[in-house]
Design goal:
single chain, alpha/beta, globular
Length: 271
């Protein structure tokens, strides 16, 4: 049973916090709350904002004090570039909770850890290990970090429609940069049998669950950090953007548009 203190700290039950968060959403993104669509894509990259505008033929993005947002009413989808890391990912989820979105989908990138993966593969995570710190402010550490099943189900169907193979499994979310040079950390990853590593997914799943925001993630394998010369470089990053990100973005837009048109409630349980 949830404690009164837990409930009181959430957007859905704290009017004062909701008002401040709504103001912060507009200030941080430069967009009015009324411009946000009920389906929201999240990204870490300015390139995705640029391509979203070109693909959807929508208006100019807005930039606030911390993030960038762009909206396509025709597709019923908004996109927010929140930059990087678990704390800002958890923050944008709480801020988006004020507009009561139908679904939020992270289009993230990850390091592929399993030997069968290659750059350009898609991972549809079924869970995330909470190796970052921010999720403990939303749920006790023993609570698993899981996406909203129906969001992942929508995305999986779009991947099939696009004739794209994808992998499911558990990813490790970390706040430790340059972990690649720590042998003890790498041994821990091997023991966990995780398929990928990145810096936001556990925060998204946990903060989204706590904030009653239906959410999911579609991760693009951008490098293979456990292999010799597999760590991402400036040159290899440009290649990933050039060859794979349009498809990543198109699948995300299609999935969110499908949720907009479907009419079914994504969250189907009561707190």
């Amino acid at each position: 049973m949830l404690t009164p203190g837990f409930q009181a700290n959430r957007i859905f039950s704290n009017e004062k916090k909701r008002v401040i968060a709504l103001n912060m959403l507009e200030r941080y993104t430069g967009s009015l709350a009324k411009d946000f669509q009920k389906q929201v894509l999240l990204t870490n990259f300015g390139h995705y904002t640029k391509r979203f505008r070109e693909i959807t033929d929508c208006g100019k993005p807005t930039t606030g004090s911390a993030m960038t947002a762009i909206h396509s009413p025709r597709h019923g989808v908004s996109l927010v570039n929140f930059n990087i890391g678990a704390p800002t990912c958890a923050l944008i989820i709480e801020l988006l909770a004020t507009i009561e979105p139908k679904a939020v989908l992270l289009l993230g990138m990850c390091g592929g850890l399993h030997r069968s993966l290659k750059v350009g593969d898609f991972i549809l995570p079924m869970a995330a290990i909470r190796g970052e710190g921010v999720s403990t402010h939303f749920m006790p550490p023993e609570v698993p970090s899981l996406p909203t099943f129906k969001v992942q189900k929508f995305v999986s169907q779009i991947l099939v429609d696009y004739n794209q193979e994808y992998r499911t499994g558990v990813v490790h979310t970390t706040d430790y940069r340059f972990w690649e040079f720590s042998e003890p950390f790498k041994e821990k990853l091997y023991s966990q049998r995780v398929i990928g590593i990145e810096m936001e997914t556990a925060a998204l799943f946990t903060a989204g669950f706590a904030s009653k925001v239906a959410n999911g993630a579609l991760l693009l394998v951008s490098d293979l950090p456990l292999r010799a010369d597999g760590i991402k470089t400036k040159a290899s990053a440009k290649k990933v953007f050039r060859e794979f990100t349009d498809l990543h973005l198109e699948i995300g837009i299609k999935a969110m548009s499908g949720i907009a048109d479907h009419g079914e409630k994504i969250r189907h349980y009561q707190w």
